[in-house]
Amino acid sequence: MDPAVDPTREPLEDWSSLLGADGRPLPRLYQDIFSLDYPDFLAFLGTSQLPQVQRMKTHVDAHHRLLCEIARTGELANTNQRNNRDWYTWCDEAAGIDLIK
């Protein structure tokens, strides 16, 4: 990665000295996802692996069936509607931060 766009290049000055930092970088990302330099692009790929393509397709299909069911019964205000607990759990596991117990 070009150091000029590395989201870990400018941590708070005391971050690395904090016990909880544990040698980890602290990326400066909006909502912990989007680059401040290029917010229209995926900001940072870490070591977490995405599931196999078929599992992702199955997940998307199930999500779309849920949206269709909601839309079938009335107005669907947001196509990002999802089970937030499942999404937060996935984000927590993918990020490896262990906030949800």
Give a brief outline of the structure.
The chain has 101 residues and is mostly helical. It contains 2 helices and 2 strands.
Characterise this structure.
This protein has helices spanning 53-73, 84-95, and strands at 29-30, 34-35. The protein has a two-stranded antiparallel sheet. It has two domains: 1-46, no CATH class; 50-101, no CATH class. A hairpin with a 3-residue loop joins strand 1 and strand 2. The mean pLDDT is 76. It has two helices and two strands. With 101 residues, the chain is mainly alpha-helical.
Task: Write a concise keyword list for the protein shown above.
single chain, 101 residues, two-stranded antiparallel ribbon, 2 helices, elongated, mainly alpha
Number of domains: 2
Our estimate of the beta-strand percent is: under 5%
Order of adjacent strands in the largest pleated sheet: 1-2
SSE sequence, one letter per element: EEHH
Shape: elongated
The number of helical segments is: 2
Spatial gap, N to C terminus: 33 Å
The helix content is 25-40%
Report the count of strand segments. 2
Question: Mean pLDDT across all residues, rounded?
Answer: 76
Largest sheet: 2 strands, antiparallel
Q: Which regions have little confidence, pLDDT < 50, spanning 5+ residues?
A: none
- Rg (CA only): 18 Å
Assembly state (oligomeric): single chain
Alpha-beta content class: mainly alpha
